Each structure stands twice: as structure tokens, then as C-alpha cells.
Amino acid sequence: MYFFEEQVLDKDRIYLRSEKEGSVTYGELDCFCKEMGTHMEKRTLVFLLCQNTAGSVLGYIACLRNRVVPLLLDCKMDYNMLKDLICHYEPDYVFAPKGHQGYSPDERTQLVYEAYGYNLYDISKETETKLNEDLALLLTTSGSTGSPKLVRQSYENIQSNAESIVEYLELNEKERPISTLPMNYTYGLSIINSHTLCGATILLTEHTMFEHEFWEYFKAEEATSFGGVPFTYEMLKRIQFFHMDLPSLRTMTQAGGKLSRALQKEFALYAIKAGVKFVIMYGQTEATARMSWLPPECVLEKAGSIGISIPGGAFSIVDGELVYEGKNVTLGYAKCKEDLAKKDERHGVLYTGDLARKDEDGFYYITGRKKRFLKILGSRVNLDEIEQILKGRYKDVCFACTGVDDRLDIFVEKGAGLCSEEIVDFISKKIKMNDGVLQVRQIDSIPLNHSGKIHYRELEEM
Amino acid sequence: MTNLEKYNKVFQVILKKEGEELKELRYRGVPEWDSMGHMNLVGELEEKFDIMLDTPDMLAFSSYEKGKEILKKYGVEIEKEDA
């Protein structure tokens, strides 16, 4: 049985606790799914504009249960990007928060259902949506550039990954995870999926760790776990998390990029002292979410390692590249609406694009990346794509992008006479990243190697 | 440079906001003032005014106006704007 289907359990159990909307029981979830199902045709496409509220999570589960395929998007996404995506994929429905600024219905759309602060719009269109029968869910690849490239996830993908996560984290119905990541981000979604599977109570807040309200809610609701990308852990250190009194906390997980050695050690030592599990994990949207975990008892001894493959998965190294096999390897990508009908293109094998090594105890370490991309705040940013975007905006100017995680360096030749601030402003808007992660460096000339290609290593050393 | 000018300059450099935009500025109210923006903003204010904010104050720093009250606790008096 799939995690999103009606479960045989006490219907009065609390499924969601939302700071805005109070409690939703598992029984109410069932009612909601039935009702929403009467307003949607099966095997259609929905754009779900996500936030960490009850309406958003309920809408997502209702889509899965009714065999409607949702594309999960950030509800704060740029309106023009949203419009472009709607033109590109022609969804049958849009499920958006009431009063959403970005989505306003026109003559083709009709409001058909409202509940939990969300509106369901039916968009009439002439063509029929053709979806592959295994397709359950669509997620964006980077979340920020508005690229139409999506990851196609199947029902089996999300179910097997949720089961695996429940197994290695030893989750049960007593868990109370608190939302710290967007639900349209694969890591945030995996927390919802795995905790729905084990019948837990999910705590939803729109507040961030930089607000009092978050910590008050955390304490009042006795949250037991949270997940974070490397930046989350930097924030936690900055707000002196180590001195907070959080008796309900049992587990902290970390994914979405490599945590610095120093931070990893500090949190590991804190976890030991506080009796909390600190679990470092590794994954990609292309593998549904999770591929590996570092058992918490090894976190100091195996510092810097991504750990071992999750239950049901297996790693191998092919020509230096990390390759993963498992039921959570997704079907493939979609770049246009016709691709939604495509079959499984990966057959359970994923070439991760990460370079890795394995130690004598079977633990894996990421040593580099095959392709040129960075992780910024846990999201992937392709450096070649950024160069293309820049070249599209500034014709005949040569750019080169390098960087490390959470910092993107843009090199431009002084002779081009461009204003650094303008470039930062343009790119930060384009990729929806805070401009604090961007740095423009004006140099005399961009170094080229003997074959005329940009010499990135030399730039990295500048 | 007055403290108000210094304060406003930090907002301009980190969040790219100035003039009339400042008064209503709130954390998470504009895309620039997200968690990373907050971390950078507080870091820059600490550097420019040579102070170190406690955790409760960092969490209470929810708006442009609120920030002025907080800095006062650290002996940084931000001048009232001319009416």
C-alpha cells in the first residue's frame, strides 16, 4: 500500500499541526481527498503552488491519492516564470493559496473548489494531457532559474524512498518533524512523505529559524526533528543553537550539499552531548530524494563521508563517477509536455555526476563533480547555464563563472565596461538567489588554455 | 556620517533598498531580505557599529524600524529622521 492512500489507523490521530490553521486529523485528510477528488479528472496535470501550510500538504496528498499528477512549485515563484511554465506544460488545474498575487484567473479558468486557504482552478483547454501511467509527481531541477526541465517521479519511486527513510531513521508515529525546508524542494518533500507513511504528526510553520515565533512553536509543539541544508546549520550556529534548551529534539538531518568539516564536528559533538541523532545524508531529485546516510555513530570517525547507501539501494563507482541503483531512481526528465508520456528511461540506474571514492569500510566520499555546478542554499546551479544567461543579456561580452558551494564568482573583463552591481542584480533576480552569494570580479582578461577554452582552474586560484 | 546614514547605508548595500522603501521593510517581506540576507545584514551592522548582537536580538530584528530599537540597547543611537 502506498503512503498517500487511506490508512487503517485511528482517524482522530493528528496528521498536521499548522501554525495558521490548527490541527488536521488523518480522518479529515481522508475526507478532504475524497472531496477534492470529485473536482479533478484522473490522470491530469496540476500546478501546485506550495508553502508550508495545511492546504498545501493536503492538496499534494489528494493529488497522489486521486492519481492526478502535481508539479510542485514555490508559491513565491516569479509570476512571469509561472506564466511561461503554464504556457509550456498546459496544466489542467492550478491549486494556489487564496489571494495569491502571482496567479490570477482569466476567462479560461474557473474556481471549482476552495478549502484550507487554497483555491482549485480548472483551466479549460482543447488538448488532452497525456501522462505515462507510472508518473506520480513532477519536481523542478533547480527550483530557481524557472527552467522548464522537470524530474519525473513514479509512484514506486516515492513509496520506496519513503519506506527506506523510515527504516534507516527508525521513524514511527510518535515523530513530530517541524518544517524548515520548502515542500517543493525534494528534501522537504521527503520529510512529508516518510512521516505520512509512518502515521506521524507534521508541524507546519512559515516562520524561519531566524524568528522567535519559530522557536516558540518548536517548543510549544514539542518538535522531535528537523532537516537542514548546510546554510541552515550555519544559521543555527550563528543564533547559538548549542545553548538552546530543546528537550523534545531527537533527530537532526542534513543534506543538500557538503557541510564544512568544522561545522560537522561541532554539531556532532553537540548531538552526542544532547543525546540527539545527527544524520548526514546525500541525495538528488533524480533519485527521488535520498541515496545515502551516515549512521550517526560514525559521524566523527567518518567525517566528510556521505556514508553508505540507503536500504534497498546500492552504489558503485564507474570511471570515478558515483553510480546508484535502486527503486527510487526516477523515470527521467521532462522538457516539454510531450515528455510527460515518456516511459522509464533510467531503468533503476542513476549516474550521479559526482566523483567519489570508497574507503576500506565501504563508506563513500564525494571528491568532486563531473559537471560544472555549485550547490547554493541546497539548490543546484549550473555554471555553464549562468554563463549562457549572461551572454544572452550582454552580447559580445566574455564571462566565466566559478565558485564553491554557497558562493558564485562571475568573472568579466574590465574592458567590457560593465557595472558589477548591475550584473549582480540581474543574475540574482534571474536565478532567484540572494545577491549575497554572488560576487563579480573585474579582471584584465579571462585566461584561456591552449585550445582556446576558459582556464577555470586558473580563475579559481585568483 | 551620522548613525542613521550608516544604518541606511548597510540596508542599501546588503538589501538594495533605500529612501522611502526602508520604512516598511520587514524580514521576509521582500525577496532580498531572506535568511541569507538576514545573516549578511546583521553581520554588516555588527561590523559597521562594532557590536555583537545576542541571539534574542538577532531573532527580534524583524524590520527596519525594529532594528533601530535593538541597536539602541547596544549604545547605538539612530537619529530620528527629519520630519
UniProtKB/TrEMBL annotation, chain A:
**Where would one find the signal peptide in this protein?**
none
Q: Which Pfam families match?
A: AMP-binding
Keywords, A to Z, come to: Ligase
> Could you tell me which PROSITE patterns the record lists for this protein?
AMP_BINDING
What protein is this chain from? AMP-binding protein
**Family recorded in the similarity comment:** Belongs to the ATP-dependent AMP-binding enzyme family.
For the AMP-dependent synthetase/ligase domain, which residue ranges apply?
11-333
TrEMBL record, chain B:
Which InterPro entries did the record assign?
Answer: ACP-like_sf
Q: Which domain of life is it from?
A: Bacteria
What protein name is recorded for this chain? Acyl carrier protein
Q: Which organism is it from?
A: Anaerostipes hominis (ex Liu et al. 2021)
